[in-house]
Design goal:
It is a single chain. Helix 3 runs antiparallel to helix 4 (99-118). The chain is built from seven helices and 17 strands. The chain has three domains: 4-202, HUPs (Rossmann fold), CATH 3.40.50.620; 221-275, Roll (SH3 type barrels); 280-359, Translation factors (Elongation Factor Tu (Ef-tu), domain 3, Beta Barrel), CATH 2.40.30.10. The protein is of the alpha/beta class and 370 residues long. The strands form four sheets. Strands 12-15-14-13-16-17 form a six-stranded antiparallel β-barrel. It has a five-stranded parallel beta sheet with strand order 3-2-1-4-7, sandwiched between helices. The protein has helices at residues 13-24, 53-66, 76-92, 99-118, 162-166, 177-186, 209-216, and strands spanning 4-8, 28-35, 70-74, 123-125, 130-135, 140-145, 168-169, 224-227, 233-237, 260-265, 270-274, 281-292, 300-304, 312-319, 323-333, 340-345, 348-359.
Amino acid sequence: MKKKVLIAMSGGVDSSVACLLLKKSGFECIGATIKTWPKEECGEEGSKMCCSFDSVGIAKNVASVIGIPHYVFDFSKEFRTIVRDYFDREYLLGRTPNPCIYCNSAIKFGALLNKADELDCDLVASGHFAQTAYDKKAKKYLLKKGKDSDKDQSYFLFRLSAEQRAAMLTPLGDQTKDQTRQIAERLGLASAERKESQDACFADQTTSFAELLRRRFDEPAQSGNIVDTLGRPLGRHQGIHLHTIGQRQGLAVALGRRAWVSRIDALNNEVELTTNPDDLLATGLTAVDVRWLVRPETLYCQVQIRYRAQPVGARVAPLPGGRAEITFDTAQRAVTPGQAVVFYDGDLVLGGGWIDSAVRGDHASEVPFD
């Protein structure tokens, strides 16, 4: 008997090829496009947003070419509640949020998995470049990196539960991005030349990611002081959400030399700048809401502090309350509160958590700005 799978289709090349590969492998496939924004907010014709009219149309076209049914599911209420609560909390704390990770666990492999049950589907699939593998000894599915190291997206999936991993198919896990696009071009799929859809649910050509979220959720921007590392005023910012650790561009002040955001103080609504790049170095970090997919035999592993960052060796010390302290083998630049830190043993995802704070030496730079 064929296994029935519900496939998340954004209209992009990755999910389209994932669908095609599953159909060719003998699965009974149903395509599903998720609407994360209400109709009036999901983008005009030509928009890159993943639930725009163009995106839905392309997904329907691809499903028709492949020869499978296609549905559109409106998860805008769930998405707004989950992302708004998360974004509000991170914004107020002066952090840099990563909504894609929450969306994957709560929407793409959460709400969509519930729809799969309603349609009597056995599995849910996506176009993520990641892999799963069944561990007979542990009797559970493990998460691993995708074959294409430049495109690997396991970083975004560390919050998936054991149940979600067991129901997940990622047919692009053993493909490269080039192979994926070649398959789409060879078959003339409408999505073949479409650009990357990462963060596409917030896509906008002229507005920053954080500012777009603020406008959508109608959060007021709060101006405040920009200061140097000794607390001396340099100018004014138009909202801490517009800044992130390590930022060089759009600092709203002209200093006559290179400067970086070194700290964001949400309590005092201040953005601190430094002219010394060494002020961005951290010897470690503290993480919260740590989740282990695999309990490591030792507390030494590789850690990744942002998407596309190179994993580095580190020691992880678990703390009470789902917290952990991570010490790097070599100091890392621009450790950013609010981003995820994911733990690896080679290609195997051990777990991950959220960066709460960077651990730095007490060496406030005294390099003058004038």
